[in-house]
Amino acid sequence: MAEFFATIDFTALLPFILIGFAAQLVDGALGMAFGVICNTLLVAVLGVPPATASARIHVVEIFTTGASGLSHLFHRNIDWPLFWRLLIPGVIGGVLGAYVLTSLHADVVKPFVLGYLVLIGVWLLVRGLLYPPKISKPKVVAPLAVVGGFLDAAGGGGWGPVVTSNLLVQGGEPRKIVGTVNSVEFFLAVAVSVAFIANLGFEEILGPTLGLIIGGVAAAPLGAYMAKRFSPKVMLVMVGVVLTATSAFGLYRALI
Fold it and tell me: Which of 104, 133, 209, 228 is the most exposed place for a label (fewest CB within 10 A)?
């Protein structure tokens, strides 16, 4: 084990540690946005190919969502009928998104991914400004899971913002919605990671991924503390502004 860590260049991992830390800080406070923040910074700022960025994020999310899912299970925050309605469609959408992303050239995919992230940023900004959302009875589940899983894999994030927020808007107990969606995300992360590794190989994924894991794990306790101290409305607006600005800048650079 000591020899393994001796071979690691932690200086090279530092940008990934900082990205993982910042993303998990926000995700811990809001219950969403780890994937979209990581993907925006990896693709738009560091220039990582979209498929590689999404693969790294989903490997990291195996650890973060696994811990989150166990916590929700312990606190009985899971609605099991809803869990099963989300699980299979979400995994199908995620694997399909991973296949599409790895089948296309990075230069072709990058503008579309960044455009999607701009839309997610604007959507989070609007949701923050209108927070809390109006509640009505939930009706759409399986199609939402397919779309959320696909966009999560193809865009490097979006399961939480798309699925959690839409289910909350449709109705249901917020505690159960958040707990159930987060628990399903663990299985989505595993399925998508396997699909990416099968297409890209371990070497393209597992290097800087360690930095994202270190940063994410280090920020988890602070994110939980922030969840009690910061207004969800303010945090959603801040995340929306940052994602929209960074993604729009990356999209501009990709198109010129």
Answer: 228
